Amino acid sequence: MPDLSRLFEPFYIGRVEVPNRIVMPPMDTCYAGPRGEVTEQHVAYYEARARGGAGLIVVEASYVEERGRITFGEIGIHHDELVPALAKLADTIKLYGSRAAIQLIHGGVQANVPEPVGPSAVARRMIPPAKTPRELTTEEVEGLVECFARAALRAKTAGFDMVELHGTHGYLINQFLSPLTNRRADKYGADRGLFALEILQRVKELCGTSFPVIVRLCADEFIEGGIDLEYAKRVAKRLVEEGGRRRPEVRTLEDALRGLPRGRPVEASELTLISHWVRERGIRTVGDLIREAKER
Ligand SMILES: Cc1cc2nc3c(=O)[nH]c(=O)nc-3n(C[C@H](O)[C@H](O)[C@H](O)COP(=O)(O)O)c2cc1C
Fold it and tell me: For labelling alongside 190, which of 94, 132, 137, 289 has CA 20 to 30 A away?
């Protein structure tokens, strides 16, 4: 008989105290409405689990953009209009003393959409038939980092104590991590852990470094040439060491200019785009520093 004496002792995830060590993992219920909205059926289902006394309840996989939707009845967390119903769910779970987390997912090639996307055009699917995704452009991948981070912010706004990134079961983050499905020639292929790392860093940037993020990682794909335990351990260590680090506040425009053709003048419309890019990320520019100095 295992020693269960500590089962009802609290523990911490980051700074969040979890009242006991019983954790309910995410499990799709397929109870959501057609637009991905949380329903009364969800609230009743999770209320019963919270009343049962689980210390932490991780609400089922919720899609961060339409192209990542896996199944009918899946919760969506891709739009602000979904937040009030998510808030009701988080409140209900917390009413009974449980801590509330929600899992964020993008299905990639496993999404049930007409044209699934993925890191590379490699046919693969846990549940047959295999489909070949369209390879995402670098800009689209950067956009998806933002989708995950915005979804995390919605979760925080709705009152969830933390989020979980779905990094396994062959879904998009797993597809980026795996040598079997990621054959990209850009930075996200040269460094297969970059997608997960950037998501984590951007979530911390938007939600604050003290907002906990759990990553459900694939530790072994059990396929020749796929993720193995040693690689998964390195990814986990890196996410812990580098994931919470904030990006520097003041940067050059190099990142913003990347991708523009070299050697031709930058047009006014492009300058506007660059300016938006910089502002949206909360980056302080030299101009900001000069203005601040003058105001002091
Ligand atoms: C109906 C069902 C739905 C599931 N949905 C999810 C999910 O949304 N996200 C996830 O990461 N795992 C999901 N899982 C996997 C579970 O979280 C869990 O890892 C799995 O049931 C193995 O745990 P067990 O050995 O305690 O059953 C699901 C499992 C089941 C049975």
Answer: 132
Say whether 171 is catalytic. yes
Structural domain contains residue 5: no
Query: Ligand 1 mean position to 276 CA, how many Å?
Result: 40
For residue 276, the enclosing domain spans 251-296
pTM for the model: 0.83
Residue 78 is encoded by which pair of tokens?
């891709």
Tens digits of per-residue pLDDT, 106-153?
Answer: 999 999 999 999 999 998 777 777 789 999 999 999 999 999 999 999
The reply to whether 4 falls in a domain is no
154 CA to centre of ligand 1 in angstroms: 23
Domain co-membership, 162 together with 200 = yes
Does a cis peptide bond (omega within 30 degrees of 0) precede residue 129? yes
Shared domain check, 138 and 257: no
